[in-house]
Amino acid sequence: MKIITHPHPSLRTIAQPVVTVDKQLRKFIQDLKNTLQQASNPQGVGLAATQVNAKRRIFATLLDHQLRAFINPEIIDHDNKTTLGPKKDDPYLEGCLSIPGIYGPVPRYGTIKLQFQTISGNDLVSQIEIFDDFAARVVQHEFDHLNGVLFIDYTKRLDLPLYQEDKNTKKLNQLEPSIVDIL
Length: 183
Fold this sequence. Notes:
By secondary structure, the protein is of the alpha+beta class. It has one domain: Alpha-Beta Complex (Peptide Deformylase), CATH 3.90.45.10. Helices cover 24% and strands 30% of the residues. A hairpin with a 2-residue loop joins strand 7 and strand 8. The chain starts with 22 loop residues before the first helix and ends with a helix. The model has no long low-confidence stretch (mean pLDDT 94).
């Protein structure tokens, strides 16, 4: 599968619920997982269906060496406040396989409760799971993709900095606000 990049219009699409389990769905999920697992430079930890030009409410994650798919996810609960990371003066910087080389802080909930479906036989089975810290951040990032939201949207709306990786030095350089407006 090819990962599409910004400004491809599919990245702004709201994905549609999955209702049927069939051979095509199983193959799509396996291909999505394989694409995430093979992503390099940077290595990815999450990939949504919209990032491969599909309008399905599915995303995959690769966390703690575990590759998983989440079908029809919904955040059903979260803690009361968002943070940019565990340390106020040292925020997490998010990146995205669809916006390569660009990173920025994003306010996220530290704990979320996610309701989602998995495949069992020929049925979709609902599950609920709690995610904390980095895993919660990844899930929220991928969930945003299914709703046509990119991490750079937070940057613009909240006037947060964006950084671009210098491919030679691997250092991050802050982008000028005028460049952020172009994204």
